[in-house]
Specification:
Layout (H helix, E strand, L loop, with lengths): L5 E3 L9 H9 L3 E5 L5 H14 L3 E6 L8 H21 L19 H10 L4 E5 L5 H9 L3 E6 L2 H9 L4 E5 L5 E2 L14 H11 L4 E4 L5 H9 L4 E4 L13 H7 L7 E4 L7 E4 L2 H6 L9 H16 L21 H11 L1
Parallel strand pairs: 1-2, 1-9, 2-3, 3-4, 4-5, 5-6, 6-8, 8-9
Antiparallel strand pairs: 7-11, 10-11
Helix pairs in contact: 2-4, 3-11
């Protein structure tokens, strides 16, 4: 299923550039394009150099929420907006009065349009996160020759994903940086370690697995492969690479000993995500509601203002638990370091 034991994760928001994916491919890894936060038109442009290269690659899409916020979550969102006004004032930013309705194409992350694009112009692999694609969509993609992958965080999610007919699973542990892929109520890390989680999922389903979450070196990768995964997926490990599109502020923070821990927070987007603990995480995690993508839209202007001001304390500094092992330099060197030891 996976042509390499090393996969470079799709990191949305500009981190996964075409240059990063292409360089990772040339170094012997399997690479994804990040479809999240992109319109269908922008995704098509992003995919053009990958298609032209002719190598095997994947595209990741966010599965959108298909129901309105509950009354309680909507009330919590309104309270959180009020809380953010003070922070926005310090940054010289303005909190939007209202987020797009959940049926707005922006809130749906242009799901219909991007799925139509990938059915009209197929790619080798499509992966989904934040939920399960309908079985009909999975079958339609497979009918075009596309291999389909679902992201899961527990045995229960793995069993549900297998029922949709996908070809493989990415098993993500809670040690992963950025957003959790969890989609079932109460779903979380699923096991104390990624090795244990992969072993549990391996015993429950017969699909090929890739392990993800807190893999900082080849020793950790070897343990995950030995537990039953065909490949490991790297995110934070390549975030500081030359080809990564992450902000310089973010890359520098990962190497700064002033940041000594990570935490899972909903403060930036309304969805659990692991980040370096900074001022924004400490100040706003308690009040942040379960409201994605609404919170993402509310904090967007604040994050942009923080980046413009060079304010790392107000940025979403996504990081997995092995962030201190993330190396700078060409991504080819990082990939080679893993492959040579594997």
């Amino acid at each position: 299923m996976f042509p390499s034991p090393i996969i470079v994760a799709p990191m949305a928001g500009g981190t996964t550039t075409a240059d990063l994916a292409l360089a990772a491919q040339r170094a012997g890894a399997f690479a994804y394009a990040a479809g999240g936060y992109k319109s269908a038109e922008a995704l098509s442009v992003h995919l053009a150099p990958l298609r032209a290269a002719g190598a095997d690659f994947g595209v990741n899409l966010f599965v959108p929420r298909n129901t309105p916020l509950s009354v309680d979550d909507a009330a919590a969102l309104a309270r959180y907006r009020t809380e953010l006004v003070v922070a926005a004032g310090r940054l010289g930013a303005t909190v939007p009065e209202i987020s797009p309705d959940f049926v707005d194409p922006r809130s749906q992350d242009f799901w219909d349009e991007k799925l139509e694009l990938l059915l009209r112009e197929p790619v080798p692999v499509v992966s989904f996160t934040f939920g399960l694609a309908p079985a009909a969509a999975v079958a339609a993609l497979q009918g075009k020759g596309t291999r389909v992958v679902a992201s899961v965080t527990s045995v229960a999610e793995a069993l549900a994903a297998a029922e949709t007919g996908v070809d493989a699973l990415v098993v993500q542990h809670g040690n992963a940086g950025g957003h959790s892929a969890a989609f079932l109520p109460g779903a979380g890390p699923g096991a104390p370690t990624l090795v244990e989680l992969v072993a549990q999922v391996r015993a429950a389903v017969g699909l090929p697995l890739a392990g993800a979450g807190g893999i900082g070196d080849a020793a950790a990768a070897k343990a995950v492969l030995a537990a039953g995964a065909e490949a490991v997926q790297l995110g934070t490990a390549v975030l500081r690479s030359d080809e990564s599109g992450a902000r310089g502020l973010h890359k520098d923070a990962l190497a700064d000993p002033a940041y000594s821990s990570t935490a899972v927070t909903r403060a930036f987007t309304g969805r659990p995500a692991r980040a370096l603990v900074n001022g924004f995480v400490r100040e706003h995690s308690a009040g942040a509601p379960n409201a994605y993508p609404e919170v993402h839209f509310l904090t967007g202007p604040l994050r942009a203002a923080a980046a413009a001001a060079g304010d790392r304390e107000s940025l979403n500094l996504w990081a997995g638990t092995a962030w201190q092992k993330a190396a700078s330099g060409p991504v080819a060197g990082i990939i080679a370091g893993f492959l040579n030891e594997l």
